[in-house]
């Protein structure tokens, strides 16, 4: 058997090596997000740019609102491919409640997590709480708070802070206060 020329052996070896690297890259790449990122969380608008980083890849997304009359809580869950992956809520609390008070019982964020300089928000890489500025709540001796949480790995605390800020501000502007103050 005749030995192939050295330059062909190198070329073949380079091709095999490049193919292996490509296969490894493709197998390690994240699955694609095939759904459109919503700009509305059950009636509360949020920019897709702040919601997108906390949502996982998948094919389909659906929103599941719950706001039982008289409970003081309006919740929105997002499901991707049938699995609950994100939750947002607007909740009525007693006047004088702090962000750390709300973070205590909240899932995915705790009272010891990072607090904003104005004490309006507490946030972590998986959850956040923030005060919703509602004039009607102040008039009724109550406060209104927004919470968000995600199950996506790799989300940063800064991304959650951006999301809770946008969500709390939008909840105040979109009538979220009225939903929980009934």
Architecture blueprint of SSEs:
Layout lengths: L5 H23 L11 E2 L2 E2 L2 H4 L9 E6 L6 E8 L2 E12 L4 H5 L10 E2 L5 E3 L3 E6 L2 H5 L2 E9 L6 H17 L2 H5 L2
Distance between the termini: 89 Å
Strand order of the largest sheet: 3-4-5-9-8-7-6
Fraction in beta strands: 25-35%
How much helical structure, as a percent, in the residues? 25-40%
Order of helices and strands: HEEHEEEHEEEHEHH
Which structural class do you get from the secondary structure elements?
A: alpha+beta
**What is the number of domains?**
2
What's the total helix number? 6
**Largest sheet entry:** 7 strands, antiparallel
Low-confidence stretches: 11-27
Kindly provide the radius of gyration, computed on alpha-carbon positions and rounded to a whole number of angstroms.
Answer: 23 Å
Number of strands: 9
- What coarse outline follows from CA principal-axis ratios? globular
Average pLDDT, rounded to a whole number, is 83
Q: Can you summarize this structure?
A:
With 182 residues, the protein is of the alpha+beta class. The chain has helices at 6-28, 48-51, 99-103, 135-139, 157-173, 176-180; strands at residues 40-41, 44-45, 61-66, 73-80, 83-94, 114-115, 121-123, 127-132, 142-150. The chain folds into two domains: 1-30; 40-180, no CATH class.
Can you tell me about this structure?
The protein folds into 2 domains: 1-30; 40-180, no CATH class. 32% of the residues lie in helices and 27% in strands. It is α+β, with helices and mostly antiparallel strands and 182 residues long. A hairpin with a 6-residue loop joins strand 3 and strand 4 (73-80). The strands form 2 sheets. A 7-stranded antiparallel beta sheet has the order 3-4-5-9-8-7-6. The chain has a two-stranded antiparallel sheet with strand order 1-2. Residues 11-27 have low confidence and may be disordered. The longest helix is centred in the N-terminal third of the chain and has 23 residues, at 6-28. The protein starts with 5 loop residues before the first helix and ends with a helix. It has helices at 6-28, 48-51, 99-103, 135-139, 157-173, 176-180, and strands spanning 40-41, 44-45, 61-66, 73-80, 83-94, 114-115, 121-123, 127-132, 142-150. The protein has 6 helices and 9 strands; from the N terminus they run H-E-E-H-E-E-E-H-E-E-E-H-E-H-H. It comes from Streptomyces bikiniensis. This is DUF3558 domain-containing protein. Residues 96-115 are annotated as: Disordered.
């Amino acid at each position: 058997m005749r030995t192939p020329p050295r330059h062909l052996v190198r070329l073949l070896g380079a091709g095999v090596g490049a193919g292996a690297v490509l296969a490894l890259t493709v197998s390690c790449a994240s699955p694609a997000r095939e759904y459109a990122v919503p700009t509305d969380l059950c009636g509360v608008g949020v920019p897709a740019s702040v919601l997108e980083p906390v949502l996982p890849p998948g094919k389909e997304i659906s929103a599941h609102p719950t706001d039982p009359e008289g409970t003081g809580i309006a919740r929105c869950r997002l499901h991707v491919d049938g699995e609950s992956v994100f939750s947002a809520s607007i909740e009525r609390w007693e006047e004088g409640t702090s962000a750390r008070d709300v973070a205590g019982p909240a899932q995915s964020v705790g009272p010891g997590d990072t607090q904003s300089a104005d004490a309006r928000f507490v946030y972590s890489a998986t959850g956040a709480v923030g005060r919703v500025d509602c004039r009607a709540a102040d008039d009724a001796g109550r406060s209104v708070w927004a919470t968000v949480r995600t199950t996506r790995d790799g989300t940063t605390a800064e991304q959650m802070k951006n999301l809770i800020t946008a969500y709390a501000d939008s909840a105040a502007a979109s009538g979220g206060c009225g939903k929980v103050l009934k």
